[in-house]
Amino acid sequence: MALTVDSYTEEIKLMRDLHGHLVFDENSFLKKVGQKNDKLNEQAAKSYQSLWKDQDNLKDNETFVDHRREQAQTMTNSFYDLVTDFYEYGWGKSFHFAKLYKGDTFEQNINRHEGFLALKLGLNQNMRVLDVGCGVGGPLREIVKASGGAHVTGINNNAYQIERCLAYSKKFGLGAKTDFVKGDFTNMPMEDTTFDAVFSVEATVHAPKLEMVYGEIFRVLKPGGRFACYEWCTTDAYDENDLGQKKVIHAIEQGNSISKLYSTKQCLDALLSVGFKIIEQGDVATNSGDSSMDVFDGSATVPWYYTLSKPDPGLRGLLRSPWGRRYTDYLLTVLNKVKLVPSGVLETSQLLNAAADNLVLGGEMGIFTPMFFFMVEKPL
């Protein structure tokens, strides 16, 4: 495994000052959050929340949006310093939604959602592939396996998550098939035409503007290569002039470090503007568009937001449920009062709970999708 970053040593020092020693026990959530540096975690929480002061001024908040776009890299880095341990606690190692087929476990649905990208891209063991915004590497590792051994490089701008990627790849014996790059995906430290294929799972939404990350993907992709993605978008049903709807979308943005959600049409326009040819597109959540993601009718599935609104079997299903989220919040409230968790941990829990509630609302209202799928090609 290789790691490419000039200032990596300093970044790792800062990361360890904040997070303490890396802990990989899946049942050690309180230990992981409990060892965070109180002052640094509080600073990260305040830094993040300082960018979201437009809750009472949503009618005309473009100035706030522009400021968040300018600060997007710092904002998202602070966000993942705050939330990564929470995500692994409730979600596992793949931080994304999936189409939920009846009779299958959450993990089976997650793995199928990831493996579908390998299938659509036609990946094989001779290909070099890029994962844009790789998180802690859950989808990346699944795609290595689903493709029969393609070599996958993940790029991520958060040092804590990169360290977890490296350790997990070593733990699971995938070091020879994975590399990780600490870097900004809107300015990738990679040569032109490096990769045979590119994928991203609910990550490019963190870019200040989608054109910025899509343009970089176009640059590093070989001619004839394809890029497949699940993107977070507003749907055709969303009316930005409806303040009730805008409040829900803003809460989703705030709870997930998104400067501004694009509509599905704006997403496709951004792809075309940087030179891509659209091969396939559609909302996996509703089976709209021309995507071949699902040939089944709705009787085979339940809504994607049931991941958050209705508990599924297992501990993590319970933790993701409304009851589980409230329990976690209550526990952290008690621990915060007696100063057994660092400053900012309770606030992070409350931020994520509000985000979850509004993700469900956005799904029920039909104004938001976390899985607008597209596959595009860089022309020869």
From TrEMBL:
UniProt keywords, alphabetically = Methyltransferase, S-adenosyl-L-methionine, Transferase
InterPro entries xrefs: Erg6_SMT_methyltransf (IPR050447), Methyltranfer_dom (IPR025714), MeTrfase_SMT (IPR030384), SAM-dependent_MTases_sf (IPR029063), Sterol_MeTrfase_C (IPR013705)
Q: Which Pfam families match?
A: Methyltransf_31 (PF13847), Sterol_MT_C (PF08498)
The keyword Transcription regulation belongs to this UniProt entry's keyword annotation: no
Entries under PROSITE patterns matching the protein: SAM_MT_ERG6_SMT
Q: Which domain of life is it from?
A: Eukaryota
Q: Which family is annotated? A: Belongs to the class I-like SAM-binding methyltransferase superfamily. Erg6/SMT family.
Q: Which Gene3D superfamilies match?
A: Vaccinia Virus protein VP39
Please list the residue ranges annotated as the SAM-dependent methyltransferase Erg6/SMT-type domain: 79-379
Q: Name one GO molecular function term.
A: sterol 24-C-methyltransferase activity
Quote a single Gene Ontology cellular component term. endoplasmic reticulum
Q: Which GO terms describe its biological process?
A: ergosterol biosynthetic process; methylation
In its keyword annotation, does this UniProt entry include Chloroplast?
Answer: no
Q: List the protein's name.
A: Sterol 24-C-methyltransferase
